[in-house]
Write a structure and sequence with these properties.
- Helix content is 38%, strand content 19%.
- The chain is an alpha/beta fold.
- The protein has 3 domains: 2-102; 122-281, no CATH class; 286-374, no CATH class.
- The strands form 4 sheets. Strands 7-8-9-10-11 form a 5-stranded mixed β-sheet, with helices on both faces.
- A hairpin with a 2-residue loop joins strand 12 (308-310) and strand 13.
- Helix 11 packs parallel to helix 15 (367-374).
- It is globular and about 70 Å long.
């Protein structure tokens, strides 16, 4: 018998699928130790007896099923196991059935890719300790200004964001946004490009950004929403995205103009740690205070994008993974011949060397140091 306890891997899988509907087999490493997770998934696809904590009722049967092939191989609930969601939360089953057409999933690759990108974003939020269960979060609205979002960080899935204003649905239907991440004092649009180059141009993304800004103002008391989090498989995705943006012929709406701050987070333990930093209240000011003496800081002024001037060099902190600032910083290097340094994590080194070249020195800081300072 499998006893499903809060915080157990089995409960985490159930919660994840209750919100995402399905999860890509190829991304099991996002959930933890890949070998252990695979063994658990295979076990849950065979007939088992399940019990939630101290609940006396016992459920017998398969919990999960695996369908599809190759990169489209996907993990879903076994249909007969769906009543177990009522034990998870009173509204979990009804939400799931409404969100996923009574457990009927489209078979085309477009919808699968979309569901998989959303599921991976949810998994990263789950690992970061961010609330993501849609049936546990308060419903958003656009009728009047209220403080609706929780004080703690929370992730709203794109499908639910689009339903907040049905009049805007046609304008935001085809946006690539996978959700919105709220935290005390801020909001991020969340995108997941996996291992492909992110393409940001288009009116759909502009409308989505405007829609999110309105939601943030009406529900979280946030005056603007100009930041985004870009999830990707690894740092090569960030490099390719920046390189392709330099070559783009459609300069009217480059992604770094749509969102002046875009924080790249790899979908691994490094990205999870970064998300915890980015959802700490007033994280940016706390980080800069910890890194630099006040007299050396730029405080947002100056002729180029930098955070401090010390020891005869201009210093930029890339500890927030902000690739939009990085573009502006590199553009300035092409104009001004100045000594410069970029502070970064070890996992960002190769990416920064490739993108910035030899003109900039790198100062390494371990993620644990920043976590201890802020969290």
């Amino acid at each position: 018998m499998i006893t499903i306890r809060p915080g157990s891997h089995t409960q985490k899988v159930i919660e994840l699928l209750s919100a995402a509907g399905e999860f890509p087999w190829r991304s099991l490493d996002v959930l933890g130790n890949e070998r252990s997770i695979k063994a658990l998934i295979h076990r849950l696809t065979s007939v088992q007896e399940f019990r939630f904590g101290k609940d006396e009722s016992v459920h017998t049967g398969k919990l999960l099923q695996i369908t599809g092939k190759g990169e489209l191989r996907t993990i879903r609930f076994y249909k007969a196991a769906l009543p177990i969601l009522e034990t998870l939360h009173p509204d979990a089953l009804s939400y799931y059935l409404n969100a996923f057409n009574n457990h009927k999933f489209p078979g085309d690759s477009f919808h699968k890719w979309r569901n998989h990108r959303v599921a991976e974003a949810i998994a990263i939020c789950q690992a970061s300790g961010i609330e993501f269960l849609p049936y546990s979060l308060p419903a958003l609205q656009k009728d009047e200004i209220k403080l609706i979002t929780p004080d703690s960080s929370c992730f709203y899935i794109a499908r639910d964001l689009k339903k907040v204003d049905l009049l805007e649905l046609n304008k935001t239907m085809y946006t690539r946004i996978v959700g919105a991440l709220f935290y005390s004092g801020g909001c991020y649009a969340v995108y997941n490009t996996r291992n492909a180059v992110m393409k940001w141009n288009g009116n759909g993304e502009i409308k989505a950004a405007e829609h999110l800004a309105s939601i943030a103002r009406m529900n979280a008391g946030i005056s603007e929403a100009k930041s985004a989090i870009l999830l990707g498989k690894d740092q090569n995705v960030a490099l390719n995205t920046l390189t392709q943006s330099d070559k783009s012929q459609r300069k009217e709406t480059p992604f770094y103009k749509l969102y002046p701050h875009i924080h790249f987070a790899p979908m691994n333990k490094d990205g999870i740690k970064l998300l915890r930093v980015l959802t700490t209240p007033n994280w940016n000011e706390k980080l800069l205070e910890a890194l630099f003496e006040d007299a050396t800081r730029s405080h947002g002024s100056g002729f180029m994008e930098y955070d401090a001037y010390d020891d005869g060099k201009y210093i930029l902190s890339h500890l927030d993974g902000d690739i939009a600032r990085l573009i502006r910083f590199r553009d300035a290097l092409d104009i001004y011949d100045e000594r410069c340094e970029v502070l970064c994590y070890p996992w960002q080194v190769e990416f920064l060397k490739e993108y910035l070249g030899k003109r900039v020195t790198l100062g390494l800081i371990e993620p644990e140091v920043i976590e201890n300072l802020l969290i």
